[in-house]
Amino acid sequence: MNIPALTGIRAIAAGIVFLGHMIESHRHEIPDTLEYGWTGVSMFFALSGYLFTWRYADALLDGSFRWGRYIKRRLVRIYPLTTIIILISVLTQFGRYQWADIALHLALLHSWVPSFRFTINSPMWTLTLEENYYLLAPFLITLFTKLQIRLKEFQPVLLMVVGAWITTMFVSTTSTTFYINALEMLTGIRDNEAWTFTVLGRVPDFASGMFAAIVARTYLARGKHSGDLVVLGGVLLYVICINLIIAHGGPRIAGHELLGTLGFRGIAIASAIIFYGLHAGGYVARFLSTSTMLRLGECSFALYLIQFLPVGAIRNIGMFTQRTLETQGIHFVVAAGISYVLFTILAYGVYRLIERPISSYLRRFAD
Q1: Among residues 272, 267, 283, which one has the least CA distance to residue 228?
Q2: Is 158 a residue whose pLDDT tops 80?
Q3: Which residues contact 35 (CB under 8 A, 6 or more apart)?
Q4: 153 near 220, Cβ under 8 Å?
Q5: Beta carbons of 197 and 255 less than 8 angstroms apart
Q6: Residue 39 · residue 269 · CB < 8 Å
Q7: What are the sequence ranges of the domains in the chain?
Q8: CA quadruple 35, 39, 44, 47: dihedral positive or negative?
Q9: In this structure, are residues 159 and 211 in contact, taking their beta carbons and an 8 Å threshold?
Q10: Torsion angle, CA of 24/27/30/35, rounded to 10 degrees?
Q11: Is the confidence at residue 223, as pLDDT, over 80?
Q12: Higher pLDDT, 97 or 262
């Protein structure tokens, strides 16, 4: 069930996030369309939705799905390297973090607590959402794939997907609003960032990938492939959504307006369309399936985690490297490119020497 091009696309998403972080302090010096590195996170969420649905739908429907094996494989996927990164951060900055903060990071629950959300390693907030999605995914996949089976023709499946996505948006909006108000009532804390940093607010991102995979289950089996055109359509939608957000005041303001909100949600939809096109095949899929792109995709998780690694007096080794290069008179764009190459090499070493061996060993017990 491996889809090579969707491993390769991980390298693109991780690169978008990394470069977005590196040039963030220069956002006023670059075109608006280039300052949206955070869209790589939406791509990752949609990709999880797509892959989980494609991999587990049949097992969930025929009764062969096993929760124990599923949970163990999910733990093996993210916890070993994450735990190592957290321990390095804590031990090299001993005494800096509260014990509750450390415990919540180790449990990957820290994004539910606003004061701990970005403390030890700020990109790790996304892992809380991934972990939460792991628990929700089997239920959502079962529900939506059962609807897909009843709607065997392509057009009704598309209608079902549109209706289900609108329903998901409504549930996400309602549940996030309830959570924000309930938290404020109980603790006095109003967490308006829950729209972005909790699974309640980001369910539509995961669902976009799920729905694309459901369409793929219906349509790709018919042998009709126009993958490159679909990928192009997804890229165009991505650009349109970025410009919608820009037109409505940027990422901090656009979410307060309908079209701005659609722009945000459209990023994940565009990503899901791209994944569908890559799955269908074509020239772009073949490029992303090359050995180089596969290797970059395989080490993307390590790249994502190490870029903000704090070590001793250095709060963030990625930004420290970027600033050091800039102080040598190197243009910030070139510096970001150099930083990306250096950290990709480091990430590949971490993947080959630490992440892959540990995961391979632990997977024997998970299976």
Answers
A1: 283
A2: no
A3: 20, 23, 24, 27
A4: no
A5: no
A6: no
A7: 4-23+36-366
A8: negative
A9: no
A10: 60
A11: no
A12: 97
Residue at 361: amino acid letter? Y
56 and 66 Cβ atoms separated by less than 8 Å: no
Extract the tokens encoding 170: 């409504």
CB contact set of 228 (below 8 Å; sequence gap of 6+): 277, 282, 283, 284
Q: How far apart are CA 183 and CA 188, in angstroms?
A: 7
Q: pTM for this one? A: 0.93
Q: What is the DSSP letter of 37?
A: T
**Long-range contacts: 155-161, Cβ < 8 Å, 24+?**
157/214, 157/215, 157/218, 157/219, 158/215, 161/211, 161/214, 161/215
Backbone phi, then psi, for 311, in 5-degree steps? -135, 110
Taking 60 as the threshold, does the pLDDT of residue 153 lie above it?
Answer: no
As to burial, measured by CB atoms within 10 angstroms (0-12 exposed, 13-18 middle, 19+ buried), residue 17 is buried
CA-closest candidate to residue 241, choices 216, 274, 286:
274
Query: Cα separation of 91 and 85, whole Å?
Result: 10
Q: Which two tokens stand for residue 166?
A: 């609108």
Mean pLDDT, residues 238-242 taken together: 91
Burial pattern 18-40, b for ≥16 Cβ within 10 A else e, equals bbbbbbeebeeeeeeeebbbebb
Q: Is the dihedral of CA 19, 21, 25, 29 positive or negative?
A: positive
H or E segment to which residue 179 belongs: helix 154-187
Residue 108 phi, psi dihedral angles, 5° rounding:
55, 45
CB-based contacts of 113: which residues, under 8 Å, 6+ apart? 104
Q: Which two tokens stand for residue 26?
A: 């220069």
Q: Return the closest-CA partner of residue 18 out of 364, 346, 307.
A: 307
Please tell me the least confidently modeled range out of 108-117, 248-257, 267-276, 320-329. 248-257
Would you say the C-alpha torsion 161, 162, 164, 169 has a positive or negative sign?
A: positive
pLDDT at 271: 96
DSSP assignments along 180-201, one per residue: HHHHHHHHS---TTHHHHSHHH
Task: Say what percent of the chain tops pLDDT 70.
Answer: 92
Among candidates 87, 112, 130, which has minimal Cα distance to 310? 87
